Amino acid sequence: MFKIAKEFSFDMAHMLDGHDRKCKNLHGHTYTLQVEIQGELCESGAKGGMVMDYSDLKSAVKTHILDKMDHAFLYDLTSEKEQKVAQLLNTLDSKTFGLPTRTTAEQLAKFIFDELTAQGLPVSLIRLWETPTSYCEYTS
Ligand SMILES: [Zn+2]
Questions:
Q1: Which of 50, 100, 122, 126 is 20 to 30 A from 115, alpha carbon to alpha carbon?
Q2: Residue 62: its pLDDT value, please?
Q3: What is the DSSP code (8-state) at residue 45?
Q4: Ligand 1 center to residue 131 CA distance, Å?
Q5: What is the C-alpha to C-alpha distance for residues 66 and 39, in angstroms, rounded to an integer?
Q6: φ, ψ dihedrals at 92, nearest 5°
Q7: Cβ neighbourhood burial of 67 (10 Å; 0-12, 13-18, 19+)
């Protein structure tokens, strides 16, 4: 079994409604995302000797994650307060992305794992840095 990974960087704003410290305020992060996939090697052809072409991995993550989330306001669809902020931003033609959960690094890592898995990628691990010194890992 082989594992390969690619790393990405993107920016997002969020807030944690109900948090008991400063994270309840609107703020942003430059996230670092590591997507690891696993599999056996393609036996022949253009992709022979590869688990997956890194450029195919890059374009899948770009299409299904980065294009939707980069420079967006990430908000919790179940929070009335966060929905209000998102609605205002939408009227101002500003990018938003709703998650069905709180927008913690943990929930976001699981969401990304599930999204990419649903697209048929054999994801084995998502590692998401919210800051240079804090990361969350989600595995199957
Ligand atoms: Zn934060």
A1: 50
A2: 98
A3: S
A4: 9
A5: 24
A6: -95, 10
A7: exposed
CA distances from 9 to 17, 43, 52, 131, 132 (A): 25, 32, 20, 11, 11
Cα(80)–Cα(85) distance, integer angstroms: 9
pLDDT tens for 37-76 read 999 999 999 999 999 999 999 999 999 999 999 999 999 9
Residues 6+ apart with CB under 8 A from 88: none
Whole-model pTM above 0.85? yes
32 C-alpha to ligand 1 centroid (Å): 13
Could you tell me where the beta strands, DSSP code E, fall in the chain? 2-14, 27-39, 72-76, 96-99, 123-131, 134-139
Q: Which residues contact 8 (CB under 8 A, 6 or more apart)?
A: 32, 33, 34, 35, 58, 61, 65, 66
β-bridge mates for residue 4, sequence order? 37
Q: How far is the CA of 102 from the centre of ligand 1 (A)?
A: 11
CA of 42 to the centre of ligand 1 (A): 40
- Alpha helix ranges (H) inside 5-104: 54-61, 67-69, 80-91
